[in-house]
Amino acid sequence: MITRPQIKLFGTDMIMTGFDAGAEKAFPNYIKILQGRQKPKFQAAEAVGALDRKIKEVEEVLKCCELCTRRCGVNRLAGELGFCGVGTRPRIFGAHTHMGEEDELIPSATIFFAGCTMRCAYCQNAPESITPGLGGEWTEEEIALWIEEEWKEGCRNVNFVGGEPTPYLYSILRSLRACRADIPVVWNSNSYYSEKTAEILKGIIDIYLLDFRYFDERCAVRLSSAPRYPEVAKRNFLDAWRDSELLIRVLVIPRHTECDAKPILKWIRENLGPWPRVNIMGQYFPTWNADLFPEIDRRLTREEYRDVINYAGEIGLKNFIMQEQYLR
Ligand code: SF4
After folding, report:
1. Which atom of ligand 1 sits closest to the CA of residue 74?
2. Structural domains of the chain, with CATH
3. CA distance 311 to 128
4. Ligand 1 test: best mutation among 71, 77, 83, most atoms within 8 Å of CB?
5. What is the pLDDT of residues 150-164, one digit of tens each?
6. Distance 82 CA to ligand 1 centre (A)
7. pTM: predicted TM-score of the whole model, two decimal places
């Protein structure tokens, strides 16, 4: 396995700083992996043959795809395409050392897969995020080598995102099998994946980094064309919480504080307790097709953001991240 003979970019101190008390409480195993006291989960799975079994399982699923909630049922191995338009080869529109994630994650070796299972009107990465053809084709060996290089350079994790990583589960697992770095794995998803995918992810992921966008299905359908989103997301959050360590992202959307942001926080408090790590995000800005929906065609106001932050405190959430710049 690849260790870090030399931390080139960030210095050894960087690896173990940036963990406040809340991060230490939320991510004890992740921190142990970074300290070299524990192996990432995918390696344990590989050692007992579980990673191979999961790869075979995904291969079967691809014959009648149900990796996400849409359950298109297409045979992707035979070249059929479903809603996401993703084939069987990895297509990537960005891969870099990301410093824009939460403090405990950076520097993060982030891979942006092209193609998505949702269609958020306000997507910040469209059109690349929803168009597999706009991504460059990589091999799984190239992905593995890139991860190993990033690890040697001092990245704390490999961060699979998109678009959406779900349609690329096959390539992700095969890349991990080829990877020789002791690097923690972050699954950075919109939370719209199927039970089948949740089952396959178990025992592989070190940190689930999951969006929780909507609590009202009408909002999910209207703004993201995602029927059943709230029930699926709740199920996936409970699964992720049981399986591993969890970081929840709640993007506060203008005029959706009462129907979505606040009920989401309440659900988290009631079902996962006071300590889940929750990033309450205030950076929404209207982009892509947001102008088609008048209520979200503006930035979030300071008052809206402050209202949601105050609410999180009132209901007893104790480990949330707020972005001070949006409170002022
Ligand atoms: S991953 Fe793509 S093809 Fe598979 S069910 Fe979801 S949208 Fe359909």
Report:
1. 3
2. 12-326 (3.20.20.70)
3. 35
4. 83
5. 999 999 999 999 999
6. 5
7. 0.95
